[in-house]
Amino acid sequence: MSVIKRNNVHLAGQGSRAMMFAHGFGCDQNMWRLVAPAFEQHFRTVLFDHVGAGGSDLGAYVPNKYACLHGYADDVVEIGRELELNDAVFVGHSVSAMIGALATIKAPELFESLVMIGPSPHYICDGDYPGFTAAQIEELLESLDDNHLGWSKAMAPAIMANPDRPELGQELTNSFCRTDPEIAKHFARVTFTSDNRDDLREVPVRTLVLQCREDIIAGEAVGEYVHRHLPRSELVVLDATGHCPNLSAPRQVISAMNAFI
Asked: How many angstroms separate the CA atoms of 106 and 203, rounded?
């Protein structure tokens, strides 16, 4: 199967440069529907699903390959080379922010810049590094292992953090629930036990870090840490809450991206 079919790649827009969008845990490319079209006039937009998500080929999911984020970054590079990208913009939400960072390190010729939305290079607190305790992460993962649907219904609204717009929390809940439970459990463990802090200094491209002012997954202190440790970065704190501003505050995301690119 070609990489285009494997990762359910969809192209739109026009322009000599490309903008690739990568979704976070438990989501798919549909999460970009309020952001990506804004760039179609000047960019060729590239949307795809990580293997194991959305319309990707679930048969291509090999646990050993995806036992760390490098497996997903290899897919990004493969897609980029198949499409002959050059000086593209990579936009990654949540865990895909770090997947994008790894991809730019692996193949810097493909990307000119990187946009990280709600990034976190590590989720467990370590010295002065902010995060969750190891016990909290293990409790989260055990809860997901025990009851995928129950975990999704409880966590999605809290992650979205827009209680005045319950439809957003419901959309994220539905997205989580559509994900194959075994793949979700594996990807969650890979995500929440990853440590890519040392990779930040190796990112060769200029980077925009977009951070919400209230985010239970990656708080402002994490965004500031990422900004400090990237060689060339800008930090923008959005006047928005939750971990998914691509859905809850798309106009702010688009505005910040336009100013950056």
From this structure: 9
